[in-house]
Amino acid sequence: MPRKTHTSTAVKQRYIDKTYTSFSVRIRNETFAEIDAWLKDRGMSRAKFITSAFDIMQNNIKSEQ
């Protein structure tokens, strides 16, 4: 019997559910548009934006101590 060569959607979804957490925020439409345009100009994802902002915040706090 030949081996399966693809992973089922259910398996992929279980991995995503186990590995990632959703982060939701409500901001004004104007602010969202500014951020979204800034991200598109730089080819950056929203997830990368959040993690980069967190890294910057952590580094600033460490340098203040």
Question: What percent strand?
Answer: under 5%
General form: elongated
Q: What structural category characterises the helix and strand content?
A: mainly alpha
Average the pLDDT over all residues and give the rounded result: 92
Q: What can be said about the biggest beta sheet?
A: none
How many helical elements? 3
Q: Give me the count of strands.
A: 0
Order of helices and strands: HHH
Task: Give start-end ranges of low-pLDDT stretches.
Answer: none
Range of helix content: 55-70%
Computed Rg: 18 Å
CA distance, first residue to last residue: 63 Å
Features:
65 residues; mainly alpha; 3 helices; elongated
Mind explaining what this structure looks like?
This protein has three helices and no strands. The chain has helices at 9-19, 29-42, 46-64.
Break the fold down into its secondary structure elements and pairings.
Blueprint: H1 9-19, H2 29-42, H3 46-64
Summarize the structure.
With 65 residues, the chain is mainly α. It is built from three helices and no strands.
